Amino acid sequence: MIIIKNYLKKILIASSFLLFSSFSYGQNNDEIFIGNKNAKVEIKIYSSFTCPHCANFHKNTYPKLVKEYASKDLIKISFIDFPLDIAALNASKIVRCSTKESSILLIDEIYKNQNAWSAGDKIQEINKKLFLIAKKFNLSDEKLSNCLKDQKLEEKILNDRIDGQKKYSINSTPTIIINEKKFEGNPTFENLSKEISKILK
């Protein structure tokens, strides 16, 4: 039974890769994005992995943006870390230690299971839960442990947070930036779509 479950899990992950195989990806210490890197519209999402509003946005609005725009090469969606606590910071580190193909899918899994992994009194407990999620994407305990100890990566994430706060006056998450302009309204798909359509005309 365990073997069958693992096999089905591998099929599911492989299918997910195929789903996004036509998209452009970027994943390194500088940028994580999906869509057309040269698109006329770039949407930056500043978010924290422990933020319930961010999880709600990622589960309900982001997929519609992908389906209607990113999958058609009309926009580029960039993910920028804005961790609100140590648990979110560690989740951001883990995502950036994954491969470019799995980073987007790992973000999906982390937000999908936010209530399960983010609950805990000790950061060690939370880290263990994050490791279990990351292992679905072939990240070993050793690599994950080294990732959490990576001071340069931590500085990069925190500096991005500071730069975003200074540049866009970010005071809550998620904050959506469209072509370098902070979106001030309620970031529903309908509202974002109106703004995107104006630019694409």
Topology summary:
Blueprint: H1 2-19, E1 24-27, E2 32-35, E3 41-47, H2 52-60, H3 62-68, E4 75-81, H4 86-96, H5 100-112, H6 114-117, H7 123-134, H8 141-148, H9 151-168, E5 175-178, E6 181-182, H10 189-200
Parallel strand pairs: 3-4
Antiparallel strand pairs: 1-2, 2-4, 3-5, 5-6
Give a quick rundown of the structure.
The chain is α+β, with helices and mostly antiparallel strands and 201 residues long.
Describe this structure in words.
By secondary structure, this protein is of the alpha+beta class. The protein has a single domain (2-200), classed as 3-Layer(aba) Sandwich (Glutaredoxin). The chain contains 10 helices and 6 strands. The chain has helices at 2-19, 52-60, 62-68, 86-96, 100-112, 114-117, 123-134, 141-148, 151-168, 189-200, and strands at residues 24-27, 32-35, 41-47, 75-81, 175-178, 181-182. Strands 1-2-4-3-5-6 form a 6-stranded mixed beta sheet, with helices on both faces. β5 (175-178) and β6 form a beta hairpin. α4 (86-96) runs parallel beside α7 (123-134) and α4 (86-96) crosses α9. The chain is globular and about 50 Å long.
Task: Tell me the total number of β-strands.
Answer: 6
Calculate the terminal CA-CA distance, rounded to whole Å. 54 Å
What percent of residues adopt helix (DSSP H or I)?
55-70%
Query: Low-confidence segments, ≥5 residues, pLDDT <50?
Result: 1-29
Give the name of the CATH superfamily. Answer: Glutaredoxin
| Domain tally | 1
Number of contiguous helices: 10
Percent strand: 5-15%
Class computed from helices, strands and strand pairing: alpha+beta
Q: The CATH topology is what?
A: Glutaredoxin
What's the CATH class label? Answer: Alpha Beta
pLDDT averaged over residues = 88
CATH architecture: 3-Layer(aba) Sandwich
So what's the overall shape? Answer: globular
- Spatial arrangement of strands, main beta sheet: 1-2-4-3-5-6
For the CA atoms, what is the radius of gyration? 17 Å
For the largest beta-sheet, the strand count, sense and barrel status come to: 6 strands, mixed
Order of helices and strands: HEEEHHEHHHHHHEEH
